[in-house]
Amino acid sequence: MPRPILATIDISALRHNLRIAKARAPGARIWAVVKSNAYGHGLARAIRGFADADGLALIEPDYAMQLRELGWQKPILLLEGFFDMADLDIVTAARLEVTVHRVEQIAMLEAFLAMQTVTKVNIHLKMNSGMNRLGFTPDAFRAAHARLRALQGVGDITLMTHLANADDPLNARLPLQQQIATFERGIAGLAGDRSVANSAVDLMHPELRSDWVRPGVMLYGATPGGGSAKSFGLRPAMTLSSQIIGIQHIAAGEAVGYGSRFISATPMIVGVVACGYADGYPRHAPTGTPVIVDGVRTETVGRVSMDMFSVDLTNVPGAQVGSQVLLWGDGLSVDEVAHAAGTIGYELLCAVAARVPFVEA
Amino acid sequence: MPRPILATIDISALRHNLRIAKARAPGARIWAVVKSNAYGHGLARAIRGFADADGLALIEPDYAMQLRELGWQKPILLLEGFFDMADLDIVTAARLEVTVHRVEQIAMLEAFLAMQTVTKVNIHLKMNSGMNRLGFTPDAFRAAHARLRALQGVGDITLMTHLANADDPLNARLPLQQQIATFERGIAGLAGDRSVANSAVDLMHPELRSDWVRPGVMLYGATPGGGSAKSFGLRPAMTLSSQIIGIQHIAAGEAVGYGSRFISATPMIVGVVACGYADGYPRHAPTGTPVIVDGVRTETVGRVSMDMFSVDLTNVPGAQVGSQVLLWGDGLSVDEVAHAAGTIGYELLCAVAARVPFVEA
């Protein structure tokens, strides 16, 4: 038997959240983003949950091949494109669309396509419109476009960028509209679909024209910012739960956990949860991070250990060894736990460890 | 092809670190701790690296069974014991030794052992000597011991506790010596081996008598505190490396990454590394976290994204797309990276994600 910890995936929530993504972007086509093993939810489950998406997008060439093996027939997009020449065999074998974000990739494509005449590869040409991560500068974008357009083996070229502050549009250092304006200037006069929108744009900026939207975290029921997932009508697809495996009755003044960082002010009942940072629960979660035990909201106490952490059971009547513990899911959003730990729901969803058993709701 | 990121495991480092653990604890027997998939290094590799250990200790009953299937013949200890009755079938089938830390486990053992007469189960009876996590209070310990001793099917009973502050022995809230004194009082007059020492005790407190030592993080070449791993002669067993996949030349005043949290003071060359928090790199790592590119020490810039982060290449001559990036390993300890991110090496080692390919050095 595995330990009591369990991740439960609700495929119907994936479907529901995809419907919301679509409803928010009428007329646009949807790349459901499934990188990082579908944000920790599993590729096979993502295929079922996102069957109505127009395509799946991810960054891992090996996982893209898995999606084909699992039966996904519709388009697949590699969001970082290919990393070396060998990946181009996968691109053609698995009929992948690829992002091109640097000139070396164009050179590889030229060399690869010169050797064959069968394939038409669809390209998503990425502009660095101010995030300064991947992509061509606006000045270099046009030349890259022309060079790709000249290749016999290139099919559609979608005009793509990525926004640094879609969740914070008035960011003083790089306002959303500045990135959009840079993008518009860079693509002026170029034909092709536009791909701009991530989850935050889909939820909060329907005014931005994007022929393709690329929702990620929202599909899993967490928020990209700008409001709670629930306020957008999203449903959590993952529930992480465990059990109480030990109880200590402690006197006032006693310490709990590594470093003895928590000292009780009064007598307390402290429960030990079979969940630690090696399960993916954040070690940064401080005392006071919310947890639900037997349906009662309480909080963590002391340092998170590798395999356990402690919770205050003083006001959870009837709590005992075996009591159910909700780490996140319906009733306690992953975003709230992440916020308490100084991070974002994205990180927690992706971090659930291989030793945690997964089941479907 | 997978992405360029790669974890390389050096089995000889595991062996070397085990020899150090043994040399520090002359006469003691060694449980090499391999929970959490051998702190992310893999069970099969741990079996080879720790062949000279007296036993392997972990918390996952299903992984314990895997250790037997992989050919480990010597003792295996479940550090949290069994979670329910069904686990006891694994305990006997896989000849596991078990920690007993709560009275419910004794009741399960009584019920289970009453049904058969073949097995002798070795018990590690755990005392809560002040950490207030798992274990019997000193007062309850003696009764638990007597109840187990009365069982026909119980073999050896080892007297066990776990220290909250072995890395910080003068901790004002719970000094090391206070925990030891509590333990001594609780076991006074009881026969049996003592199991007290974790990595920090093994490295820093050889004066504490422990018949069994339970080194964990030190075996993987990271420090439990109290000094650098290197200062103890330990060698890192895991190297996490990747490559530069994009480069941006930015002007003074430009922003990098999500939230535009980093603004360049001068013109800079910024590289994008194929490694993000969904690979296990900590999202808490702030600008300035150390990274080595092409052998040159530099630092991160801006927010860590899910699949990438940026590094300053301004002073890394010749750095280009494809340049090798050392995230941690020989030359940059996981402890240093963890410290920069406000956590400990343990968390980073365990967090390396399933999508990262592993190879052996």
From TrEMBL, chains A, B:
Binding site for substrate: R133, M306
EC id: 5.1.1.1
Cofactor(s) the protein needs: pyridoxal 5'-phosphate
Function of the molecule: Catalyzes the interconversion of L-alanine and D-alanine. May also act on other amino acids.
GO CC field: cytosol
Catalytic residues, chain numbering: K35 (proton acceptor), Y258 (proton acceptor)
Similarity-based family: Belongs to the alanine racemase family.
Keyword check for Isomerase: yes
Keywords: Isomerase, Pyridoxal phosphate
Entry-linked HAMAP family: Ala_racemase
Enzyme class of the recorded protein, top EC level: isomerase
Record's protein name: Alanine racemase
Positions of modified residues (N6-(pyridoxal phosphate)lysine): K35
Keyword Isomerase listed: yes
InterPro entries: Ala_racemase, Ala_racemase/Decarboxylase_C, Ala_racemase_C, Ala_racemase_N, Ala_racemase_pyridoxalP-BS, PLP-binding_barrel
